Amino acid sequence: MSCGERLARELKRRGQRVTPQRAVILETVAHMQRHVSAQEVFEQARLRLPGLHLATVYRALDGLQQAGLVDPFHAGPGQARFALSHEDHPHGHLICQRCGRTEDFDPGMAQGLAEEVAERHGYQVSLSHLTLRGLCSECRAVLKSTPAGG
Hints:
This protein has helices spanning 3-13, 20-32, 38-45, 54-66, 111-121, 137-145, and strands spanning 70-74, 80-84, 92-96, 102-105, 131-134. It is of the alpha+beta class and 150 residues long. The chain has a three-stranded mixed sheet with strand order 4-3-5, with no helix packed on it. The protein has a two-stranded antiparallel sheet with strand order 1-2. α1 (3-13) packs across α2 (20-32). The model has no long low-confidence stretch (mean pLDDT 85).
């Protein structure tokens, strides 16, 4: 079974209509194998569907997100990114606030924190869309070697 057929079957299984646009957009996200913006999806998908509109990509990504087929994360204001959802491979995101570098990490590492939050505050924390911001090792090294005030 081809990748497209497998994704189309998954669309149907999740109650989504399989339109040419939706199928190509989902395949595009899957084949890019990284977190991509709607603009990047649009640029690649319109190579296969020349009449495609950016608004269609946004609507499709929203529907695919609601169906649990793509995972969104926000690198910053107006910087939504999307990746194919992998139920068997959950991952969180580390985002450098200085250079914007993004890395995946195992959100299970935060399980202890989630349990403590549940105990102290009564919240059941979902680790499926965990994003942590900070400084990557390279930016920390640059800042450490920069004289104060410079």
